[in-house]
Design goal:
By secondary structure, this protein is of the alpha/beta class. It has 11 helices and 11 strands. It folds into 2 domains: about 10-90, Orthogonal Bundle (Arc Repressor Mutant, subunit A); about 100-304, D-Maltodextrin-Binding Protein, domain 2 (3-Layer(aba) Sandwich). It comes from Rugamonas aquatica.
Length: about 300
Amino acid sequence: MKIPRSTLEQWQVLQAIVECGGYAQAAEALHRSQSSVSYMVAKLQEQLGVELLEIDGRRARLTKNGEALLARARELLGDAFQLEQLAGSLAEGWEPQVGIAVDSLFPVELLVQVLREFEPSATHTRVNLEETVLSGSEDALLEQRVDIAIVSRVPPGFLGDALMDIEFVAVAHPCHPLHALGRELEADDLSRNLHIVVRDSGTLNPRDHGWLNSNQRWTVTSPHTRLEMICSGLGFGWLPEHKIRTQLEQGLLKPLPLRVGQRRKQSLTLIVANPELAGPATCRLANLIRTVVKQGLTLRPLCE
């Protein structure tokens, strides 16, 4: 195994000389004697066979070779400091990785705000985000794939904190045949039209949420694809109110005039998979979710 002839300490001394402007200043900054600083740089140049510094008046300046080499050495020094910080985080119990499953109903703007606030304090913790539909987050908990989950139904054996209620509204394009009827709609009216739903991403206990036993039902895997299909006039569906405000304002969608059941509500719950064993990163992320939801954006109703 090859061992480098130079050390990080030597490169750190060279960097200090350049940044401080000279040997004496670098020695003072590093709390070393000037002779030891001079010796380390001279030894480094001898080991490499390359001149790294030249004296310009009273200041020490890098040669062109020195500039090229120190630029790479700075990267190594930065990596070394990050490695030490990682070791410190692990010593304090910070997990190297946190897994989180988030139901697709959870507002994206809130999720981004949570992650933005989490990032500065968790620079050495990787986040694995799994976006799910219906029972997908429950599967992630039951299969022990995640540390945190935002679910639309709490699976057996878990406890959680209520986060928010999501309002759904039955909608279709304004030119859809259901709107052309010009009256209040009944369940029979819906059953004769194409209903577009999203497939459950879970497999352990999959469920069909809100299916009316329509004669025509198309199933897609992406909530965004369903939204685009309904906005184009292809079918109807119950969509999360906070995700379709723009489309309603632009006239791409219009609430269906159902006599009963135009609106639905679904609660979201935050679950920490193992509260007693949760590390600092998991606890920090869970607390941020609670705080951001409580103090963050309000999902205002469409009709006030």
